Amino acid sequence: MAIAKNTICLWYEKDAEAAARFYAETFPDSRMGAVHRAPSDYPSGKAGDVLTVDFTVFGIPCLGLNGGPIFKHSEAFSFQISTEDQEETDRYWNAIVGNGGQESACGWCKDRWGISWQITPRVLMEAMAAGGAEAKRAFEAMMEMKKIDVAAIEAARRG
């Protein structure tokens, strides 16, 4: 098995394996890899406990570390998922929020482990890239949303 040169390490209190399994089941080009157990006792666990889990989210290699309750996730790190339409936006949003996660604003939500996700339709990114009045209208529409409403963004783009 090849080891990735750059891997995102995500700290979990104790549920890295459950998180990796959820991501693999939810997102395309995602999988759960090896589960590594602690060879001896450590501050947040004992020998034989799941210590790390290799997984991939949308092709991005990750390592889940069960490090205990010392560190918590914040919005300073998020996965941004670009979606093609409302159906895809709804599918990912509903999977995350419906599995014990929580809604936030402007297309952001958190999964049940506290990882932040930006579920962002391409139409919104295209509107922002267009700049000017179109970007302003789309941005102002987005500011009123939790989950992004593609039709509302498209309408805002048109003015």
In short:
By secondary structure, this protein is of the alpha/beta class. The chain has five helices and eight strands.
Keyphrases for this structure?
single chain, 159 residues, 2,3-Dihydroxybiphenyl 1,2-Dioxygenase, domain 1, 2 domains, 4-stranded mixed beta sheet, 33% helix
Describe this structure in words.
A hairpin with a 5-residue loop joins β7 (108-110) and β8 (116-121). This protein folds into 2 domains: 8-66, 2,3-Dihydroxybiphenyl 1,2-Dioxygenase, domain 1; 78-158, Roll (2,3-Dihydroxybiphenyl 1,2-Dioxygenase, domain 1). The N and C termini lie far apart (52 Å). The strands form 2 sheets. Strands 1-4-3-2 form a 4-stranded mixed β-sheet. Strands 5-8-7-6 form a 4-stranded mixed β-sheet. The protein has 5 helices and 8 strands, in the order βαββββαβββααα. It is of the alpha/beta class and 159 residues long. Helix content is 33%, strand content 28%.
What order do the SSEs take from the amino end to the carboxyl end, as H and E? EHEEEEHEEEHHH
Q: Classify the fold: give the CATH topology of the largest domain.
A: 2,3-Dihydroxybiphenyl 1,2-Dioxygenase, domain 1
Question: Can you list the strand order of the major beta sheet?
Answer: 1-4-3-2
Which structural category do the helix and sheet elements fall into?
alpha/beta
* Mean pLDDT across all amino acids: 96
The CATH architecture name of the largest domain reads Roll
